[in-house]
């Protein structure tokens, strides 16, 4: 069953525990490119890195996290972020303990700092 938008927004705001500035600074670091799947295009950017840039846009355009201010494009990306973070947090305990692991870096690209919880 597909989650309703309200649930997706709530879970996104719980799972994305980095600020727009923290995520933006992280994505500038070389290590943010050290994990994840490459996109099917000419760039070297990973899918997670691109997701992080989208998350920054969402966070900046609605800093108050008012559910009525998200559009359907935002909610569609939030849905991906929630699914990715929940799946990887459930599967990859290493991310919570090793900030040098690919799991940790990948989750951070998706807006979740496992060391911050």
Question: How are the SSEs ordered, and which strands pair?
Answer:
Layout: H1 5-15, H2 20-28, H3 47-61, H4 72-91, H5 94-97, H6 102-109
Helix pairs in contact: 1-4, 2-3, 3-4, 3-6
Bin the strand percentage: under 5%
Q: Please count the helical segments.
A: 6
Largest sheet: none
Q: Residue-averaged pLDDT, rounded?
A: 88
Low-confidence stretches: none
- Helical coverage, percent range: 55-70%
What is the CA-atom radius of gyration, in angstroms?
14 Å
How many E-type strands? 0
Report the span from N to C terminus: 28 Å
Instruction: Output the helix-strand order.
Output: HHHHHH
Shape: globular
Structural class category: mainly alpha
Characteristics of this structure?
117 residues; mainly alpha; 57% helix; globular
How does this model look, in words?
By secondary structure, the protein is mostly helical. Helix content is 57%, strand content 0%. It has helices at 5-15, 20-28, 47-61, 72-91, 94-97, 102-109.
In short:
This protein is 57% helix and 0% strand. It is mostly helical.
């Amino acid at each position: 069953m597909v989650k309703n938008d309200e649930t997706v927004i709530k879970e996104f705001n719980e799972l994305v525990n980095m600020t727009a500035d923290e995520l933006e600074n992280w994505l500038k670091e070389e290590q943010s490119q050290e994990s994840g799947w490459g996109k099917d295009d000419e760039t070297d950017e990973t899918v997670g890195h691109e997701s992080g840039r989208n998350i920054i846009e969402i966070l900046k355009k609605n800093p108050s996290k008012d559910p009525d201010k998200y559009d359907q494009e935002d909610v569609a990306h939030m849905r991906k972020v929630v699914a990715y973070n929940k799946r990887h947090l459930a599967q990859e305990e290493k991310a919570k303990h090793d900030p040098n692991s690919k799991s940790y870096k990948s989750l951070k690209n998706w807006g979740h700092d496992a060391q911050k919880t």
